[in-house]
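Quick one:
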Amino acid sequence: MPYRKRTRNIYDPDSAEPFAVSRSRIDRFLECPRCFYLDRRLGLDRPGMPGFSLNNAVDALLKKEFDILREKGHAHDLMKKYGIDLIPFKHEDLHIWRDDIYRYVGASVIHEPTNLQIQGIVDDIWVDKNGVLYIVDYKATSTQDEITLEDQYKQAYKKQVEVYQWIFRQMGFAVADTAYFVFANATKKPERFDGRLEFELSIIPYEGNNGWVEPTIYKIKECLDSGTIPEINPDCEYCGYSSSVNSAL
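Output:
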């Protein structure tokens, strides 16, 4: 399919309507302001990537499993194993926050000073006896190494839950600094495949700090309002590729 410039979801500096900025686009801005600008201001997104169907399947199955306990008000055995005294949070808007209706919005709040609508799709939320919420994210992987949050690419995971923490605080909820990552690790231990993957589940806590989120929103607004495309980012492989192509032509 030939590449086409997008005509929707493009920022108009003269519009009074709130402009949606998703958690993933915040991550894009942090990674490369130029790519963010080309996408949100000019409609020139990066080339698409295949969907992670297996990851999505794991997410769906974990949600079903925790939803059974959510209805009963019970903790999961995995939570008990890790000494986590919480239960899955039950709320009438959970299906919206998790985007079960596929509108690609999730939990959202308008940042009044910039008129940007910050939004993000959560996997799950747990709650303690005092009504304090804990952001939870599911991750699927397959590794024989110890699972940690220290890998370079996992730093984006931390930013991800910190944006969610910020959104829910702006929505008026009490949100703990602690977030939890539920990892489903496909093990290679079985001698036979037999058409089945076996997963080992683990939980890794993370102490978030969303103090960077609001200053970043102001920077995003400044970037969007600018009439100048940001400079090429030497650390961005997409910028490097397009620059090399232009030089070769």
